[in-house]
Description:
This protein is α+β, with helices and mostly antiparallel strands. Helix content is 32%, strand content 39%. The strands form 3 sheets. It has a 5-stranded antiparallel β-sheet with strand order 4-3-6-7-8, with no helix packed on it. Strands 9-10-11-12 form a 4-stranded mixed β-sheet, covered by helices on one side. It has a 3-stranded antiparallel β-sheet with strand order 1-2-5, with no helix packed on it. It is elongated, with a radius of gyration of 23 Å. This is Curli production assembly/transport component CsgE. Keywords: Signal.
Amino acid sequence: MKVFTFKNTLRNFLFLVIMLCITTEINAQFYNKDYVAKIYIKKESEFFTFAATAENLTPTDINLRYDFSVYSTDDNNNTSRNNQTDRFFLKANEKKVLSTVSVNYSVDDKIVLVLVLYDKDDKPVGQDRIELIYENGYQRIVNEDVLNPKTAASQDQAAPQDGYVMDGLVVENTLTKAGRDFYKYFYSEYFNRGMQTKKNILIEEVPGRMRSTRISVKIDDKLIWQFFSQPKKSFLQSMAIAALDRCIAYLQQLQKQKDNTLTRY
């Protein structure tokens, strides 16, 4: 009788584990669908810098919460956790850097970084995870070839569905101080949002009406944003934000078209 009870208990336990795995896999399909969590990696001279980012793939503004955790496990399997959490506002088609953290190459602990985005009901809607292991005297990123955009691109690997694999440039072709200032504000916003794209973005300025000039923002000769310049700082900053928002929306549209084409194929 005890043996029978044990077998049933074991069977029930295995069934529960299988169901949990299936449920987790099903739920995972809904992560990074509308709101993308992505941890970007930058290698400095002595440490890694990890930037936790969030991207809104929808045409609607949203309030979300993020949790960015760093787990550190020593040789005795003692684990500590440092985390940053806060609510934030994400405009339609906006991409934002939420937080950054640095890890020294010489730290000999096992490091795991986890980023999770939650909606207003505290339901997870986006997630990303990166693991580091200590080998031969320095930290190494697990599956670094997949996580490193340059390496992945050189190996002709498929772009991840939750972000862009990019090496594009922001090219300046301006004539006046207003044009140069616009480029500076645009690129600053581009950098601060953690933008990456294979596409080159061209900022071009040509003579316009009267004493003003016309500034255009293009991707692959596709006109994304255009306006007549003014020297006022606040105006140029607002134009830079609006132009970048349009660029992000256009890049997201291209990515969706590519995903749909691959799905049909």
